[in-house]
Write a structure and sequence with these properties.
single chain; about 140 residues; mainly beta; Porin; about 65% strand
């Protein structure tokens, strides 16, 4: 924090993800569950860019008040490094749109992306007609 108490944010990356419904499981004790496969996607930021590999998944738990997200995916950088990324969050209706709020962490191998292991990523996202888009940040 700065002397005035402000928190400084650093843009980390923009993330686009397309998913496909695998199955719906209504009536579970905690709510209705939707299980989605990660189909593909892309990411780009000041220090890394690449593709989302077709793997992992999104396990969404829906209640009357909110949806809870539990997502795991593999990111492949333009120079061929594969980085697991896991995030959790919530989806809730705000005005006329659904707002996604997430926090996650990376598991980068030793090398040029190892710096990702020491950060907590967080971001905001929204559903679009072609998939989900997030803007991810880190504290500076």
């Amino acid at each position: 924090m700065t002397q005035a108490g402000a928190v400084l944010l650093e843009p980390l990356l923009n993330l686009f993800v397309r998913t496909r419904l695998v199955c719906s499981l209504p009536g579970l004790p905690a709510g209705d569950r939707g299980v989605y496969d990660i189909v593909d996607g892309s990411f780009e930021g000041p220090r890394l860019r690449g593709q989302v590999l077709p793997s992992g998944g999104d396990w969404v738990l829906r209640t009357a008040a909110v949806s809870r997200l539990d997502v795991r995916m593999l990111l492949k950088t333009d120079d061929g490094v594969i980085i697991p990324f896991r995030y959790a969050g919530s989806a809730s209706r705000r005005a006329d749109a659904v707002r996604l709020e997430i926090a996650g962490h990376f598991e980068a191998p030793e090398g040029p992306y190892a710096w990702l292991n020491a950060i907590q990523a967080f971001g905001l996202g929204a559903y679009g007609v072609d998939g989900v888009r997030y803007r991810l940040f880190r504290f500076q």
